[in-house]
Amino acid sequence: MFKRILIANRGEIALRIIRTCRDMGIESVLVYSDIDKDSLAVALADKAICIGSASPNESYLDKKKIITAAILTNSEAIHPGYGFLAENSEFAAMVQKNNLIFIGADAKVIKSMGDKILARSIMEKAHVPVIPGSDEIRDIDSLKLYAREIGYPVLLKASQGGGGKGMRIVNEESDLERSFLDAKKEAKNAFGDDTIYIEKYIINAKHIEVQILADKFGNVIHLGERDCSIQKNNQKLIEEAPASTLSLKMQKNMRQVALEATKSVGYVGAGTFEFLVTEDAFYFIEMNVRIQVEHPVTEMITGVDIVKEQIRIAYGLNLSINNDNLNFSGHAIECRINAQNVKQNFFPSVGKINDCYFPQGPNVRVDSGISRDSEILPYYDSMIAKIIVHGATRLEAIKRMRRALVELVIDGIETTSDLDYLILHHPVFVLGKYNTKFLDCYLDEMIEVL
Predict the structure, then answer these.
(1) Whose CB among 17, 150, 225, 439 lies 3.0–4.6 Å from 243's, allowing a Cys bridge?
(2) Sequence-ordered list of residues with C-beta below 8 angstroms from that of 224, at least 6 positions apart, any chain
(3) What would the pLDDT profile of 89-145 be if each residue is shown by its tens digit?
(4) How much of the chain is helix, strand and coil, in % rounded to 5?
(5) What does DSSP assign to residue 272?
(6) Strand 355-357 relative to strand 409-411: parallel, antiparallel, unpaired?
(7) Bridge partner list, 302
(8) Are the beta carbons of 394 and 432 closer than 8 angstroms?
(9) DSSP string across 274-337
(10) Which pLDDT does position 23 carry in this prediction?
């Protein structure tokens, strides 16, 4: 097994990887920005190296500095976590060229799946159902033609996009040109590429994803589904596993499609297929070629340490499990705690945390890198903690999460925890009948209560 792994990330995911490395007897090396010098991840890593200033471009996105740090510390592999360089094909290739192992997908697969237009084409060839749509849109006339052909509403998407950037919902032709130009501008600023394509906008759908693991010997398994439909601005807020409203037929078909598609692209590692699901059909959205924020709910119902499996796969070992000996147990829910002001359209909240207490008790897990006196700054993602609970049933998990959120204390900044609490009491959520438009429909009434 690896003796030493460098972790190219920060916050809760860096801690998550550090802890699994320690469980496996692997030394962890953490790179960090100067502003993170007092973080819990820095304190718990076996070795930590400051590689630059708070700006991500000067630290967590600086490929050469990270690889140099790995070489100088005799690290054998680099784990990118999620975000930052986790889906950067150039970085993955650089890691390999420097005789290091990238704990993630192959650079060529990352590149092909990162291009949403190319990924659509690959999935179509693999007989995966995709949303009706186009290739690259180059001019307004072509855009109008495609929109009329597939019918309104339509969704404009950035080919290199993610996190809702470069994405616009258009309900009528009079808004099409302006939305197209806005999406191109945002995509260019965010990704350096303004390529836009168009898809049919699927109304009242659920966002369901299938977690897969694949080793270098052709073994591919699924770890079930997650329901990630509670979203704001295409950013997930609450996730749960299993996706309890799926029919057994739909569940079986989605799992089989994900497994076959994984094999067809020669994928190795941990990955996720994301689908939009209606009552009678499902459509491929994208494949995430990394570990995801919401992976703990899958771990809670399967008992599988996904990070451990990632490391084993990267080292060249067989999967330690298969779908014949994998057991699903109970129900899990995850609430993301974001440093945001819900009443001000989820505007980031920054400042010092004066007091902090995380919930405890049976079947409660907290993944976070913050504590009392932590400083929340505007340089990084606003998610500061994840609370995950497990219950024998979905209702038990809901009640346990309500209790956990009551115990949570984060004083000094605004967070989304109160909104999470209200969602968990909303009858539409409790019945499991929600979809991706849930907050569009009910956010205003919940804000009145806050």
Answers:
(1) 225
(2) 210, 211, 241, 242, 255, 298, 301, 302, 328
(3) 999 999 999 999 999 999 999 999 999 899 999 999 999 999 999 999 999 999 999
(4) 35, 25, 35
(5) E
(6) antiparallel
(7) none
(8) yes
(9) EEEE-SS-EEEEEEE-S--TTHHHHHHHH---HHHHHHHHHHTPPPS--TTT----SEEEEEEE
(10) 98
* Helix residue ranges, H only, 115-247: 116-125, 140-150, 176-191
pLDDT in tens, 391-429: 999 999 999 999 999 999 999 999 999 999 999 999 999
User: What is the sign, positive or negative, of the torsion defined by CA atoms of 377, 381, 382, 388?
Assistant: negative
Name the residue type at position 59: S
12-42 burial: b if 16+ Cβ within 10 Å, else e: bbbbbbbebbeebebbbbbbbbebbeebbbb
> Would you state the pLDDT for residue 172?
94
CA distance 5 to 28: 5
Q: Determine which one of 290, 336, 365, 400 is catalytic.
A: 290
Handedness of CA 325, 330, 336, 342 (dihedral sign): positive
d(CA 268, CA 284): 19
Asked whether the beta carbons of 175 and 247 are under 8 A apart, the reply is no
Task: Find the farthest-apart pair of alpha carbons in the chain and give their distance in angstroms, rounded.
Answer: 60
From the CA atom positions of the chain, what is the Rg in Å?
Answer: 21
At 394 the pLDDT is: 98
> What whole-number distance in Å separates Cα of residue 352 and Cα of residue 335?
22
Q: Which residues, in sequence order, are bridge partners of residue 390? A: 332
Average pLDDT over residues 226-248: 95
Q: Verify whether residue 4 is a known catalytic residue.
A: no
CA geometry: angle at 89 spanning 236 and 54, to 5°?
65
- 325-339, pLDDT tens digit by residue? 999 999 999 999 999
Cα distance between residue 8 and residue 253, in whole Å: 36
Q: 191: helix, coil or strand?
A: helix
Structure tokens, 11: 């916050």
Own/partner contacts of 399-406, CB < 8 Å, gap of 24 or more, are 400/333, 400/363, 400/364, 401/333, 401/335, 403/359, 403/361, 404/359, 404/361, 404/364, 405/335, 405/359, 406/359
pTM of structure: 0.94
Tokens representing 348 are: 């980031």
- Residue 379, both tokens: 């340089």
Positive or negative, the Cα torsion across 309, 312, 316, 321?
A: negative
Residue 417 tokens read as: 């925890």
Per-residue pLDDT at 234: 84
